[in-house]
Amino acid sequence: MKNKWDERYKSQEYFYGTEPNTFLAENINVLPQGGRILCLAEGEGRNSVFLAKHGFDVTAVDFSSCGLEKLKTLAKKEGVSVKAVLADLSSYPLGIDQWDGIVSIWCHLPSQLRRRVYGDCVRALKPNGVFLLEAYTPEQLKFKTGGPSELDLLPNLLQLKDELAELKILRQEELTREIQEGQGHRGMSAVVQILGVKN
């Protein structure tokens, strides 16, 4: 799996572009200003660099060294600092009460691992910390405009609400929307969006 992502990220072109995910950009003001933010499965760094440009203290985790090298290049170009961590989420310790925000954009994990990681995310957030997620749903298999082809990697809203049950949910929605993110995500897409706060 790691080799697949290294192969995808090895070219100079940014596979998902360099602009931030629009759901993240639209909700940046919900994140505690200047807070410590953790970006899961961050890849080439477009979202973490965007957050750093807005004054957040950002840590980005991914298991692709090629992706993280491009993150560092993009951060340098934009004149910001992002802590890039090469790690697999199956073994990366998120900590307890560590983060003011955790961002999960297209972080598609096997369902058993996802349940554990998102449970760890809840514990890792500080009180009033924010969890922001966008992911493809099983309906995305009809569109084929990005995302995994394995059903087990595609969560629906009910599953995520259960996995994030300890959060106060501010926004929860399954929808179809147009996505244009580099060559990797292009066209109408079936997604789930969640915005939650730890009490």
Quick rundown:
The protein is α/β, with parallel strands linked by helices and about 200 residues long. The protein has seven helices and seven strands.
Describe this structure in words.
This protein has 199 residues and is an alpha/beta fold. 30% of the residues lie in helices and 32% in strands. It has seven helices and seven strands; from the N terminus they run ααβαβαββαβααββ. Strands 3-2-1-4-5-7-6 form a seven-stranded mixed beta sheet. β6 (167-181) and β7 (185-198) form a beta hairpin. α3 (46-53) runs parallel beside α4 (65-78). The longest helix has 14 residues, at 65-78. The radius of gyration is 15 Å and the shape is globular. The model has no long low-confidence stretch (mean pLDDT 97).
Mean pLDDT: 97
SS field, number of helical segments: 7
Spell the H/E element sequence: HHEHEHEEHEHHEE
Low-pLDDT windows of residues: none
* Main sheet characteristics: 7 strands, mixed
Q: Kindly, what is the distance between the CA atoms of the first and last residues, rounded to a whole number of angstroms?
A: 36 Å
The gross shape turns out to be globular
- The radius of gyration is 15 Å
Q: Quaternary status of these chains?
A: single chain
Strand order of the largest sheet: 3-2-1-4-5-7-6
